């Protein structure tokens, strides 16, 4: 009753490989681009009409199609709500995490937006995977690591101080030693945000341990760039 059935059928047929040969080679990409809008129009109660099409697009051989979905999966999660997101989107999200960098960047740019929609126990499972974003297909792709640092600053609020210390601290320290200065700069802000997180939550012991680690690693570093990093961290703080 929401939209005419023939129109919906026409949309769903856009994933047919034959249409790519006869109509438009990028028709699947257009289908993927429009999917959040179609899902919003149909409403979450009619998600079952789109689910198979979404899964077909998510496994499309063209990375541009998967990339399009990766950039909008957080928007679809808002439309579908937490239960459908956990059941139908999380497996696809996990697949995108292991995809090409061109696809992973779509997930990474809205990582905070997606994770905050998950239940705490499900969200905690991603602590182990966040460090995988440090490794990219092309090490020269420094904007990927820059984006990771930016997202982590936001993501800090989603985890308790102990989890931040055990998992996110290591990523921050790695990024602070990046070869690209832009990545180091944003990482200094991340380090300060972690310290603020500790002290705002009365985790003074964790904060002191982290400060001592920064002193050993950067203040007493044999290379001037390490000592400079320590000065910049103090400046940001």
From TrEMBL:
<dbReference type="GO" id="GO:0019888">
    <property type="term" value="F:protein phosphatase regulator activity"/>
</dbReference>
<keyword id="KW-0677">Repeat</keyword>
<dbReference type="InterPro" id="IPR016024">
    <property type="entry name" value="ARM-type_fold"/>
</dbReference>
<dbReference type="GO" id="GO:0005737">
    <property type="term" value="C:cytoplasm"/>
</dbReference>
<dbReference type="InterPro" id="IPR051023">
    <property type="entry name" value="PP2A_Regulatory_Subunit_A"/>
</dbReference>
<dbReference type="InterPro" id="IPR011989">
    <property type="entry name" value="ARM-like"/>
</dbReference>
<protein>
    <submittedName>
        <fullName>PP4R1 phosphatase</fullName>
    </submittedName>
</protein>
